[in-house]
Amino acid sequence: MQEFDLVVIGSGPGGYVGAIRSAQLGLKVAVVEKEKSLGGTCLNVGCIPSKALLESSEHYEFTKNEIKSHGVSCSNVKFDLKQMLNRKNQIVSELTQGIEFLFKKNKITKFQAWGKLKSPTEVQLKTETKTETIKAKNILLATGSYPIELPFAPFNKEEIISSTSALSFSKVPEKLIVIGGGYIGLELGSVWRRLGSAVIVIEAGDCLCSSMDKQVSEKFLSLLKKQGMQFHLQSKVTKVEVKNKKAKLFFEDSKGQSNTLDCDKVLVSVGRKAFTKKLGLENVKLKTNSFGQMEVDKNFRTAQKNIFAIGDLIPGPMLAHKAEEEGVAVAEFIATGYGHVNYETVPSVIYTFPEVASVGKTEEQLIDEKRDYLSGSFPFIANGRAKALNDTQGFVKILADKKTDKILGVHIIGPRAGDLIAEAVIAMEFHSSSEDLARSFHAHPTLSEVIREASLSVHKRARQI
């Protein structure tokens, strides 16, 4: 029987990053992955392929509608959906091969099998042809999550679909209805709207992305509406019927009135659930909470102290970069006795157009906490670089403690927000004040100057650029 210092079940961002860090620290590591390719949901059917399609569709829409403002003439602009999908698949393939290379480089053993806990120190590996068991001093559960299915709208991969199916349509649907106003549905809805779909979003809440700063959420909604996306907020879907390869959706609107909508596709995007099916938790006396997630201590240990859980399996935002840092923390804890993740600086990004990014507290959270704070904001329309890009929608908003000036939250809606938020993350990691940002050089002309101006605005000192 093969023995390892650490066996990781799942090769998504948390699993493979944790495995690599463990190997770098001198541990003998194995990774068990049920799929043929490494990378988990994020790399294969999530973060990466969706961003590839977002980029391609954005290029198409820009060339069709905006490039003429730059003095460039293009006629008869068309897109090749097959090529877009091929490009997406090629990117995924290259990145999964990259993980394979890193596993070999770091001498990590890979098992393509279904991993199941047999005991606190044993993992059963099952394939179509055989079953074997390996021993582990430590086990890391990193099996991720899967899309939640509505009981009255089960996925059939044709008319009623999950985010996975929405990455590979053979043709652009005439009408796409998205159930859920979260980031996954809005990103994929944006892809197909740009390519010609009429997209309608139905959301039970009174705003998009409920955890988002309200001022940003309101601006986000108005901009998506201007792009042609339709919304029914405070609306509840009650039934979906499929007939003749079409779907009919029944819902109650904000006034309680019954409505129906016909469409080609219904994308159900109401969240994800921790993947613990057939993982053998009962064999090691581990249980899940009411949300299907596992409870862990500050070092990510379950009730079985040598079994760890990270990522979507535990409470917190379901984000790839959160899982990565947790994987690193587990590796370092096993090897050195120390591991840490700062949850106050976990950024969140929505890759629509414009992008939305945030880190730290929202204004609503600070009000609920009865915390005295100052707020400063600055619009991209007053920024020279944004004007050169012809992309001036949105703003940067900075929240700081009224007494200490420590930055408590940063919220961005606008061009390249997903890249700009990194500055805010680093500033908060080092407990910076808004004054620190305001007095730091920002090259001119750059989009990052909007962050500086928002910092100046906290104390009413912003300037026009």
Give a quick summary of the entry:
It contains twelve helices and 22 strands. The protein is of the alpha/beta class and 465 residues long. The termini are far apart.
Q: Which residues sit in consecutive blocks of at least 5 with pLDDT less than 50?
A: none
Task: Tell me, briefly, the overall form.
Answer: globular
Mean pLDDT rating: 97
Alpha-carbon Rg, integer: 24 Å
Strand content: 25-35%
How much helicity do the residues have?
25-40%
Class from helix and strand fractions: alpha/beta
First CA to last CA: what distance?
Answer: 67 Å
The tally of helices reads: 12
Sketch the major β-sheet: 7 strands, mixed
- Give a count of the beta strands, DSSP E runs of length 2 or more: 22
How would you explain this protein's 3D organization?
The relative contact order is 0.12. The N and C termini lie far apart (about 65 Å). Strands 1, 2, 3, 4, 5, 6 and 17 form a seven-stranded mixed β-sheet that branches. The protein contains twelve helices and 22 strands. The longest helix is centred in the N-terminal third of the chain and has 25 residues, at about 80-105. It has helices at about 15-25, 40-45, 45-65, 80-105, 185-195, 215-225, 320-335, 365-370, 385-390, 415-430, 435-440, 450-460; strands at about 5-10, 30-35, 110, 115-120, 120-125, 130-140, 145, 160, 175-180, 200, 230, 235-245, 245-250, 260-265, 265-270, 270-275, 305-310, 350, 355-360, 375-380, 395-400, 405-415. The chain is α/β, with parallel strands linked by helices and about 475 residues long. α1 (about 15-25) runs parallel beside α7 (about 320-335), α3 (about 45-65) packs antiparallel against α4 (about 80-105) and α3 (about 45-65) runs parallel beside α5.
